[in-house]
Amino acid sequence: MKFSVSRDSLLKMLDPMNSVIEKRNSVPVLSNVKIELKDGKLKATATDNDITLEGVIDATVEVEGTTTVNAAKLNEIVKKLSEGVALSVTVDMNADRMTITSGKARFNVACISAESFPPVQGVSSDCSFEVEAEGFRKILTRSLFASSKDDSRQYLNGIYMHAAKGDAGEDVLCFVATDGHRLSKSVMPLPTGANNMPGVILPRKAVDKLVSVSRDVPAIKVEVAESKAQFIAGDLVLTTRLIDSTFPDYNRVIPQTNEAEMVISKQALLQVVDRVAILSNEKSRSVKFEVASNLLKVEAHNTDSEEAKEEIEVAYNGSEEVVIGFNAQYLADLGKLMENEEIKFQFKTSGQAPVLLQDPKDVSSLYVLMPMRV
Fold it and tell me: In this model, does residue 351 exceed pLDDT 80?
């Protein structure tokens, strides 16, 4: 094998692939990226056996062939070479060695035969549609923060993507995630071709990679089957196994009759919570809200009998005082996701029911927080 390629193009393709691969692998070839040279193209493939990421770039190919090389080492070598340079690469198939040269720099890296690399299987599906990349990426980001990292409840370790009906009865593509303490739900108009899509759970890791690889493309093509989904973002193709489980009935968690409403400046709230939480319990990170008469009192205390209190003006329409506790970090995370200047809270006046939060100017997303004892 022999080829030359732009350092910048190769790095752009390799960088997201490096993060797909698990750092500790009992199977050595799964630490490698597969390199294929054919018809003037360099195709790279990385997989952890659940997620596969493929990419294609132009290359000057003198001798075609296929091999695998350690993804982390190759990525680090390419990253530390100067921007804008060209790389010359030769692979000795008999010695299983890849030689990379650029200017006066030269690297010899061990290879493993591609014969032991897992075969890539595509997605066979009747459900195929296209989405605008920026909006899709925002929805995935808003949903991802609420998904669980608890492996004992695998069905919560991702985002539930499915066709549904909106508030006005319109067809929407719906994204829901929850970890039992918080929930995120976002919708977008149902794309053409998605009406027969099965409800699927996209794994956290796959969603995280999808957010990363979709930053520089205008649109993403989506293929969905019962056990796999595929996303084509420019020259990169991400294929993932789906979580084989049933997502819980999330509508039972979303409050429908919360009668008290508070609207508050997002920036002011986050600043107050950030200051008060300095003296919160290190484990629970809880802060107490007392809402009444257009005034919010935020309070925290810890096991050393230290406490912090601060007040802030709000718009509140409730007839009774609400006393409720929240995880300060959850509030901070939500604030980062909301793009506009205000946050709307909807409470039950009992104070111990789930709380509904929304951006008043963005009805496409809603969030639910479970209260904490304070």
Answer: no
